[in-house]
Specification:
The complex is a heterotrimer of chains A (259), B (600) and C (249). By secondary structure, chain A is mainly α. Helix content of chain A is 52%, strand content 3%. A five-stranded mixed sheet of chain C has the order 2-1-5-3-4. In chain C, strands 6-7 form a two-stranded antiparallel sheet.
């Protein structure tokens, strides 16, 4: 009486990749454009090893700057033997955080791997094992990247504080504002992370006995609803921050001082 | 299976027909009692009409008002039913429903909670205290999913998308059932010692109805054919608040919970008209001014708002307002909660109502009032059963849930149906299993009866004629809506009977094309057999009761008549004809009488 | 009442084969796609197979793919389409076809059987069960599920990779697992089940299940990801692993 429950007979009947008539491909195309450009830019910036400091502003791509060879040393952990760009010492943290982020995973699985390119659009690859095997099994260490990016965040806030300290004394320029917004957006992105939400209280089965954790979890849950938004604006802003510092240090533009 | 086998056969102790709340609960119980049990349902498992129940299930648990107890619940049920109820059913129902609610919790239902962590309870029409255990406004879904998951976990056998068309008897006892599987058209014969009918309602015979396609009254037809009796069929319930716009959603239910949570009914003049429709019977316990009505929500020392009078009263009031020209542009009245409660509260308490109006009518109920009007909703009557055992007068045939009559009398209180399902569903399963155990001798499935059942099923695919079943259905709905609707007269009822006779002839001329595999035209043709039986039963009963009571309103006999208050209208099939006779109610014991008569 | 003629392309056929058939029908104001399908049934194709029950988005029977998107026929209003647009209605792709728009969804009922039931601990001393609103709310969101199986249909893990069906339970049942896993009174640990038998690792959180859910349940964010996180703690957290090795719990 029944068909084989694990079988599929329509696949052959309608052999098209999708019956969708809307422009489903716009979303993955935009992601490829934006995310792709950012990765290319970030790699170029990291390889450049120049124009990342324009006193008192330090580009977030080089913060914290951990080598003695830095234009602005945050903490000289690595001696002169480190002759690569100091960006490589730290960029793996935000890079890893974003690469294993639950939102970005969706974005690049869909757009770069076509798995699936859109909802109800056929997968590009013939076979699929998801995140059950290496390398995608590594996505599970996301929460450690979260902890590490909190450390980086602390430095970025410190950079924002230092951005008030000019040679002439206490002051504030457009760059100060840029760094402050950068730290704030990255904080929102980090705290809205799904792992953070789990660690803040999502792991509990009963909230009633843990009111503090419950209200923390509720706050994180509200932030979490906008995780994708924070992911994109913090990404774009961090890029623009670097561009700003770079242009200043190259002398192409001048920083506007408020006071 | 081999193609040359004409039908599949299965053998069980108890066959439960219908997988809504009552059917699932009956099957779980029968199976727990050790009977080999199977559940047969017309749709997929978990899609039964129970999912549409919104507001909650009534149970005097006293979690919110500790003054509440089964006696008050019993009294409310009897008074709401205009005393036509089977008192013993009302008593059992009031006594056992708290246990059934707690049992659901034990099986994983996530009811809304009180501050103290107990099951929360909400106000509903006709209930003295906030009594309805609920989950937002999707309580029915929770009930069916909980029972479904429990049944699956217990390994219950389920035959989905299977339609039973005939019961088979050995002498006067039930011995089997004949049906077919809808996806394939495969015929099937069940050999069984007992049958529990839990087939639900009959609303699909009306045009504006809150009921799904399944509510065709199959159980009513099966019971009549098998020799069982029906009672109170004339007291069909029209729910006061169904959607009226747009036309394609007309009739879809708007939960009474809207009023329970503070919504009020207003007419086109902006007046809360329910204050003008308080009947003497409820005067003592109903607020006669807006101030007291509004205070009642917070403090039950006040008298209750007339917006929450029993459903028959509210439905008639809305009908009168619209007739008097004070209706909305689309022929309803306004149900307003937007101006009375904060948007967040509304979204939280009534999420599916919010969703339903937003998606189907483009109306934001947190900002605008809803347009509502009466819609065909619930069969108060049904198969006559013994209160304790749910047994019909046919040995081996049991009935529970909406298809069974008696508990609700002339009018059902909101929230009493979900508790009805589990209280009497459990009893049906229990007593069916006991009946099977006590049975001696062998039952045979008579080949002649099976053959007759098979012929009945196959007739529409083999017949010659040019009638379209969809047209017959549409005409039947039109007829029942206009002639056997909320207000009735003798002339119209007689006309309806004539039309029904014509529909029967037309149905005989239906031929369906397209074979037996998942063919909706064929399914509808067979469902129409039940719908016609139901329509005739309701019309004949309505013609018999020459008074107005509960869900039954006669324009030619507008008052309740004490003489008719002492009898049930009972229907039986005799030589292919449905016969009607008024029969006295069960005598209520004095202590219960006192409870009902007590002034509060 | 505003009525207009619409062109519908409806899949007609069974497992052996079939084709899209065009129907021209009148659409009235406020109609949904299911109304139009019913109009086709009543006037042009009485045997057009389609499942439906409540027609109010509460039972989840009328799942299909409209213009390629998995949706409920009863909750898709005709006025959401551009006038004159041909509307394509096809059966769900992931499940075997029975006939026309009806598919055999028994895959889902088989998967439902693999999930162990709720198992509460002992009652409170006063014989009650105490749970608080904040504790049941997470589970209540998942219990809004109407089992339309659109999430199962759209999930590419089984939609495009037949061979994964035995090892993958699908979003609907991840939600069920999450509900029980987060239940304040449940005593059964289902993390091993979720990881191994239900194949949670197959999910690459591309969120199509959430996109198509007619009940707007946040399947990915509130069920799947929290479940993944709990599994990380149990199986993939090196620090937890190390602590357990040296006997710290």
């Amino acid at each position: 009486m029944k068909n084989e429950p694990f079988g599929n007979q329509r696949g052959e009947v309608i052999p098209r990749a999708t019956l969708r008539t809307d422009a489903w491909w716009i979303e993955p195309a935009l992601v490829i454009l934006l995310l792709g450009s950012f990765v290319v830019y970030a790699t170029w910036v990291a390889l450049q090893n120049a124009h990342y400091y324009a006193a008192p502003y330090l580009s977030p791509f080089y913060s914290p700057c951990l080598a003695t060879s830095c234009q602005h040393v945050t903490w000289p952990l690595f001696g002169s033997w480190w002759n690569l760009s100091p960006a490589f010492l730290i960029l793996w943290v935000p890079g890893g955080f974003r690469a294993t982020c639950y939102y970005y995973r969706k974005a690049y699985y869909r757009s770069f791997l076509g798995s699936p390119p859109g909802c109800a659009v056929r997968d590009v690859a013939k076979s699929y094992t998801g995140e059950t095997r290496f390398p995608f099994l590594l996505q599970n260490i996301h929460r450690y990247f979260f902890w590490l990016s909190l450390v980086i965040l602390a430095f970025l806030w410190w950079d924002a504080v230092l951005a008030f300290r000019f040679k002439s004394g206490f002051g504030m320029g457009v760059g100060t504002l840029v760094l402050l917004v950068n730290a704030a957006l990255l904080t929102l992105y980090s705290l809205s992370c799904h792992s953070c939400r789990h660690l803040c209280g999502g792991h509990l089965d009963a909230f009633h006995t843990r009111p503090a954790k419950y209200s923390l979890w509720r706050t994180m849950s509200r932030l979490n609803e906008r995780h994708m938004l924070f992911a994109w604006i913090s990404l774009i802003w961090v890029g623009l921050t670097d561009v700003y510092v770079r242009l200043l240090s190259m002398g192409i533009i001048r920083d506007l001082r408020f006071f | 299976m081999a193609a040359d086998v004409k039908y599949q056969t299965h053998e069980y102790d108890v066959l439960v027909i219908g997988a809504g709340g009552a059917g699932l609960r009956a099957a779980i119980e029968a199976s727990a009692q050790g009977a080999r049990t199977a559940l047969v349902c017309k749709s997929l498992l978990g899609k039964a009409h129970t999912v549409m129940a919104e507001g909650g299930m009534a149970a005097a648990m006293g979690n919110v008002w500790k003054e509440d107890n089964w006696q008050v619940h019993f009294r409310d049920t009897m008074r709401g039913g205009k005393m036509l109820n089977n008192w013993r059913m009302a008593q059992l129902h009031a006594q056992e429903s708290p246990d059934r609610v707690l049992e659901l919790e034990e099986w994983g239902a996530l009811f809304d909670r009180t501050k103290a962590g107990l099951i929360s309870q909400r106000d509903f029409g006709g209930h003295r205290y906030a009594r309805l255990a609920h989950i937002g406004d999707r309580t029915g879904l929770e009930l069916i999913r909980t029972l479904q998951q429990h049944a699956v976990h217990k390994g219950l056998e389920v035959h989905m998308e299977c339609n039973i068309q005939r019961l088979v008897k050995d002498g006067n006892r039930v011995s089997g059932a004949v049906g077919y599987f809808r996806p394939t058209g495969q015929l099937v014969v069940f050999k069984t010692k007992a049958v529990v009918l839990a087939t639900g309602g009959i609303g699909k015979s009306w045009k504006f109805t809150s009921n799904s396609w399944e509510c065709t009254g199959d159980g009513i037809r099966l019971a009549l054919d098998a020799g069982a009796e029906l009672i109170d069929m004339e007291c069909h319930q029209f729910h006061p608040t169904g959607m009226v716009w747009p036309p394609s959603v007309r009739g879809i239910l708007v939960t009474e919970g809207v009023r329970g949570d503070g919504g009020t009914l207003t007419n086109s003049e902006g007046k809360r008209f329910m204050f003008n429709y308080i009947p003497d019977f409820f005067k003592a316990e109903t607020a006669d001014n807006e101030k007291e009505a509004d205070a009642w929500y917070e403090d039950k020392k006040n008298r209750r708002t007339p917006d929450l009078l029993p459903r028959d009263e509210v439905a008639r009031a809305i009908n009168s307002e619209v007739k008097a020209g004070r209706g909305t542009p689309h022929g309803g009245v306004y149900l307003d909660i937007a101006s009375r409660r904060p948007a967040d509260y509304i979204r939280k308490r009534l999420p599916s109502m919010y969703h339903q109006f937003k998606e189907l009518a483009d109306v934001d109920i947190t900002k605008e009032p809803m347009e509502v009007g009466p819609t065909c909703h619930y069969m108060n009557g049904g198969i006559r059963v013994d209160a304790d055992s749910t047994a019909t007068c046919v040995p081996g045939l049991f009935a529970a849930g909406e298809v069974a009559g008696g508990l609700h009398g002339a009018n059902r209180l909101g929230g009493n149906s979900l508790s009805d399902l589990v209280v009497f569903g459990r009893r049906a399963g229990l007593y069916a299993a006991q009946y099977v155990k006590s049975l001696s001798g062998k039952l045979t499935v008579d080949a002649g009866q099976v053959e007759a059942g098979v012929q009945g099923i196959l007739r529409p695919v083999q017949g010659k004629g040019n009638e379209n079943p969809y047209a017959v259905h549409a005409d039947l709905q039109e007829c029942m809506q206009s002639l056997v609707g909320i207000i009735r007269t003798e002339g119209e009822l007689k006309k309806a009977l004539e039309e029904i006779a014509v529909f029967k002839q037309r149905l005989g001329r239906v031929t369906v094309e397209g074979g037996r595999a998942f063919n909706p035209a064929w399914h509808l043709t067979l469902d129409l057999l039940a719908m016609l039986a139901v329509s005739e039963a309701v019309t004949r009963a309505a013609l018999e009761r020459k008074e107005s009571r509960g869900g039954h309103t006669r324009d030619d006999y507008p008052k309740a008549d004490p003489k008719w208050g002492k009898v049930n209208v009972v229907l039986r099939r005799k030589n292919d004809e449905i016969s009607v006779s008024p029969e006295p109610l069960l005598e209520m014991p004095d202590d219960l009488k006192k409870l009902v008569e007590e002034k509060q | 009442m505003a009525a207009s003629e619409v062109t519908m392309r409806v899949w007609r056929g069974d497992a052996k084969g079939g084709a899209f058939t065009e129907y021209r029908v009148q659409s009235q104001e406020g109609m949904v796609v299911l109304d139009v399908i019913h109009a086709i049934q009543a006037t042009q194709a009485g045997d057009l197979a389609v499942r439906w029950n409540c027609k109010a988005g509460k039972c989840g029977s009328c799942s299909a793919e409209i213009n390629g998107k998995p949706r409920l026929l009863c909750m898709t209003r005709m006025n959401t389409f551009t006038p004159g647009e041909t509307i394509t209605v096809a059966p769900m792709k992931t499940f075997p076809l029975i006939r026309d728009l009806a598919t055999d969804v028994s895959f889902n009922y088989e998967k439902a059987k693999t999930i162990p039931a709720f198992r509460p601990g002992p009652k409170e001393p006063d014989g009650t069960r105490r749970m608080f609103q904040e504790d049941v709310e997470r589970g209540q969101e998942f219990r809004k599920c109407i089992e339309c199986f659109l999430c199962q249909d759209v999930c590419h893990v089984i939609r495009d990779h037949e061979d994964n069906k035995p090892a993958f339970a699908g979003p609907r049942f991840f939600m069920r697992l999450a509900e029980l896993e987060m239940h304040p009174l449940d005593t059964h640990d289902r993390k091993e089940l979720a990881r191994v038998k239900a194949g949670l690792g197959f999910c690459n959180i591309t969120k199509c299940c959430t996109e198509v859910c007619p009940e707007h349940i946040h399947i990915t964010d509130n069920a799947i990801i929290p479940l993944k996180e709990r599994i990380v703690t149990e199986y993939y957290d090196p620090v937890v692993w190390l602590l357990r090795k040296i006997g710290v719990r």
